[in-house]
Amino acid sequence: MAPGVAGVRERSIGWRVIAAKEVADHLLSTRFAVLLLLVALAAVGSVYAASGGIREIAERAQEAPSLFLQVFTAAPERVPSFLTLVGFLAPLLGVAFGFDAVNGERAQRTLPRLVAQPIRRDDVINGKFVGGLAVIVAVLTALTLIVAGLGIVRLGITPTADEAGRLLAWLVLTAVYVGFWLAFATLWSVVLRRAATSALVSISVWLVLTLFTGFLVGLVADAVAPVPDSPTVEEVLRNARVQQWLGRLSPAVLYEEATVVLLNPQIRTVGIVLPRQVDQAIPSPLPLDQSLLVVWPQIVGLAALCVVCFAAAYVLFMRQEIRA
């Protein structure tokens, strides 16, 4: 075999070897088992709690729009919906699989041995990211199929082609969203030497962007576009627009907006809607392609954030000195 062909072959399989190693390590780890059990119990519990209310809706209106999707979006009393739980807990999978991707190998003194193998140095970080993302996508896919199966068995409702397409689009969107958190945690595992520190930073940022975005955005919006005691409509709208644009700096907000539109065809926009616009709107569900057009900026934004974080981790890792 020619030397050039051999080099290309080694480069094409190097990251696959690392990815396969990462998949095996994750699947056999206690961390994976605990997180999988937590997410699965929360998801299945929310579906069981919501199934009673969905059955009542189905009995009252056999032609209720997108009834099958309500298995994922319905929120009974005191129990969040499956959609809310996944949006809150799924980033933990990305953080858990990425916070020690590089510094964990460095702490165990196995990183020099990895880069000493007949593979390219970038295959290490590429394989680690692909392996972690593959496990996360497999978990999300299995969880979605289990929830869909429970909905079919308990409610006797089968999804239409449009509903199945929406679920597939949502699954891809969720994989991109969790991929961002995996890339973000991997970035800190490259920058910081201690795995505990990178985990703390990643979880802290996740909590701020998930739980406190609304509070922080409200404070900034009130300072930039204050609303007086007797406000005009324009002043209220200006404050609301500032809150909306600032909120979209958070990947959690982008994911939430895209998810709501994809899994609820009745929603036609993610912007600010005035009462007169609601009265003039035609009450008909959007087809899947139109829903994708509505949230295309959010999808592109999440993908861009994921690419930027991984590119930063890649560049920093390639420039680091690795000593035996």
Compact overview of the structure:
By secondary structure, this protein is mostly helical.
Describe the structure.
Residues 4-9 have low confidence and may be disordered. The protein has one domain (3-211, 248-319). Helices cover 76% and strands 0% of the residues. The protein has 324 residues and is an all-alpha fold.
Proportion of helical residues: over 70%
Number of domains: 1
Cα end-to-end separation: 33 Å
Mean pLDDT: 83
Shape: globular
Low-confidence residue ranges: 4-9
List the secondary-structure elements in sequence, H or E: HHHHHHHHHHHHHHH
Radius of gyration: 23 Å
Question: How much β-strand is present in the residues?
Answer: under 5%
Structural class: mainly alpha
Major sheet characteristics: none
The count of helical stretches stands at 15
